[in-house]
């Protein structure tokens, strides 16, 4: 297995990528089954068109027509619509890259754990950040429409363009509560948004901060410091998290 493939199957986005790979494998099996009958069916008109072209011009042109029709048929059979799981996994890997300088430049003050299984649940935590501010759960949202704005309505509920996201906020709050259970300490909650526009400085809905992913490091550094959360406490919390929140994939 290549090093790139190995990285994609561990760490940030691993569980989402595993789901995306399973969906793609199933799609590929269906495409193979379609190709078994579709290619022979396409061969008849392709050969006819090639013969007509060859008769009118030359055999090279006829062969080219057959090749083009075959390639177009294959492209139609094996095209893919993509997967929201793959998009989500890519977003989590981007968030990992954003958080990495925090760890490297933090001189032991910050530790980040990615893609952790919530005990007694099929859900997972995207990113658990431990630092001077205490524990913070960062959930990645990859909302790909750059023209759709992230906003709050009059009730303080979160929207992405025309799509309400209050259930997503409630899910993130629940996930953070399970992380707090495991750590024995309250956990702050942040949603990091890729692509879609979040107002500068971010939003707050139900106690959850929503920020543009490019502002994530700055937001974490600006959070109030928790008393006692020095390097030793961060290491202890990371050790406890490693024991109670196992890798999801």
What does this structure look like?
This protein has helices spanning 3-8, 14-56, 59-77, 84-104, 166-183, 216-222, 231-244, and strands spanning 111-117, 124-131, 134-143, 150-152, 158-160, 163-164, 188-195, 203-205, 208-212. The chain is built from 7 helices and 9 strands, in the order ααααββββββαβββαα. Strand 4 and strand 5 form a beta hairpin. The chain is of the alpha+beta class and 249 residues long. Helix 2 (14-56) runs antiparallel to helix 3 (59-77) and helix 2 (14-56) packs across helix 4 (84-104). The protein has a 6-stranded mixed β-sheet, with helices on both faces. It is 51% helix and 20% strand. Residues 1-9 have low confidence and may be disordered.
Principal-axis shape: elongated
Q: What structural class results from the helix and strand content?
A: alpha+beta
Binned, the helix content reads 40-55%
Largest sheet: 6 strands, mixed
**Uncertain segments:** 1-9
Quote the average pLDDT.
82
Q: How many strands?
A: 9
SSE topology:
Blueprint: H1 3-8, H2 14-56, H3 59-77, H4 84-104, E1 111-117, E2 124-131, E3 134-143, E4 150-152, E5 158-160, E6 163-164, H5 166-183, E7 188-195, E8 203-205, E9 208-212, H6 216-222, H7 231-244
Parallel strand pairs: 3-7, 7-9
Antiparallel strand pairs: 1-2, 2-3, 4-5, 5-6, 8-9
Structural descriptors:
alpha+beta, 3-stranded antiparallel beta sheet, 20% strand, elongated, 249 residues
């Amino acid at each position: 297995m290549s090093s790139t493939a190995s990285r994609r199957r561990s760490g940030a986005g691993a569980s989402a990528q595993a789901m995306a790979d399973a969906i793609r494998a199933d799609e590929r099996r269906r495409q193979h089954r379609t190709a078994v009958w579709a290619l022979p069916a396409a061969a008849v008109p392709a050969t006819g068109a090639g013969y007509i072209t060859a008769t009118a011009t030359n055999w090279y042109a006829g062969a080219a027509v057959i090749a083009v029709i075959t390639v177009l048929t294959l492209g139609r059979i094996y095209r893919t619509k993509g997967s929201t799981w793959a998009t989500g996994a890519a977003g989590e890997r981007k968030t990992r890259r954003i958080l990495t300088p925090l760890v490297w430049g933090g001189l032991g003050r910050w530790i980040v754990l990615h893609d952790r299984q919530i005990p007694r649940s099929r859900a997972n935590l995207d990113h658990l950040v431990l630092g001077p501010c205490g524990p913070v759960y960062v959930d990645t949202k990859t909302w790909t429409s750059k023209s759709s704005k992230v906003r709050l309505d009059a009730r303080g509920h979160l929207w992405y363009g025309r799509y309400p996201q209050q259930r997503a906020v409630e899910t993130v709050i629940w996930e953070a509560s399970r992380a707090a259970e495991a750590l024995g300490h309250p956990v702050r909650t942040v949603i990091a948004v890729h692509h879609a526009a979040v107002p500068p400085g971010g939003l707050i809905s139900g106690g959850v901060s929503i920020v543009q992913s490019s502002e994530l490091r700055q937001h974490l550094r600006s959070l109030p410091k928790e008393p006692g959360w020095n390097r030793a406490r961060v290491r202890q919390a990371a050790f406890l998290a490693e024991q109670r929140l196992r890798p999801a994939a």
